[in-house]
């Protein structure tokens, strides 16, 4: 009996050392660590549990100097909220976190999931499709989709609070399809509904797998039935994506046009099809990047617009400042926005940036450490993982004593921004892997908000907003708005 007890003690000590290998310059460990499982129990139990853990991680990390250790079993994660260390980590590590492997059957080696040399090559080849001049060429399409949205919102005027995200998600998907892929989907709402519904189901299944330790086993995952559902949804989404490629191929053949020059004026689909013809991108590469761009664009943009309307509806003085600027720039007419208008709408842009700062959709930047990385006080080694908490960077004390206050004016002059403020504003990512579509997102959001606020006044109650996180941070309640027609609204 004594021998069994002694064996168990030795085994426990061995496993404990295996779980937390003491390395040089290790950061302090997040509270609540348990031998063998580490902090795994803190991320299991649903979105609200995960949200609570992310909040606690950020607070404790700030108290302990900006870097702490978080363990999922034996796997060490460096949790970082120090801006300088965050920038070092992001620029030194281009490989995505292991969690993104779950999305590989769906997104393959698209920009979200790929790393290293594959990401570098794809990013370099795709950059021209998101150039400023290309995005400005989409303004008519941005305006058309925004007008369609405003007309659809007429059904909600003077009625009960409603979920505006449902309208915004449709508009975002139509916009990305119409612009980046050159596909007219105004009369194809059925396609949008099918794609959004399938993506939401896929994200739900993958989130459940992430939060349930038992589903990490391939055998249990298959026996649970989730693997079959996931495979069916992925196949369906791929069929929809391939249909976009085929439609564009047919259009190009019918026009007898073949654009060969890799100029900065090409849309994404044109660029990808040309690269396919040059045997740089395969058919599979094209589909993967299409799925990636659609998923990244419509979900993040839709929730960001939702937060913007919630803020404006709860802060009438800011809403009126934006509305006044819109009237001053565009006048009493109902004309479309042009590039000069976008440049003049400085307060509107400042408001959007402040929304993105305080209500970031992506909770964290995740990296796989593949080589030794020296932070200010600690060292990350190959095999470690890195988690940069965006919310804490965006609310860093460098923003000033009013860091928690929603104040668009801070964006109107460099003097009010933190020095090297790109390290303190991580909504579009940080370091070399920043969002490729940030200009596209800003211009489309600005256009949509201008069209909405020219016709409607928005009301909401931000105090009731309750958020949770999985892959994105989104509301579970308090996110409904009401709209009324503005006096002297343009039509």
UniProtKB/TrEMBL annotation:
Name this polypeptide is given: Cytochrome P450
Cofactor names: heme
Family membership: Belongs to the cytochrome P450 family.
Binding site for heme: 435
Signal peptide boundaries: 1-21
PROSITE patterns attached to this UniProt entry: CYTOCHROME_P450
Taxonomy, superkingdom: Eukaryota
Keywords in alphabetical order: Heme, Iron, Metal-binding, Monooxygenase, Oxidoreductase, Signal
Tagged with keyword Signal: yes
Lineage start: Eukaryota, Metazoa, Ecdysozoa, Arthropoda, Hexapoda
Nucleus in keyword set: no
GO molecular function annotation: heme binding; iron ion binding; monooxygenase activity; oxidoreductase activity, acting on paired donors, with incorporation or reduction of molecular oxygen
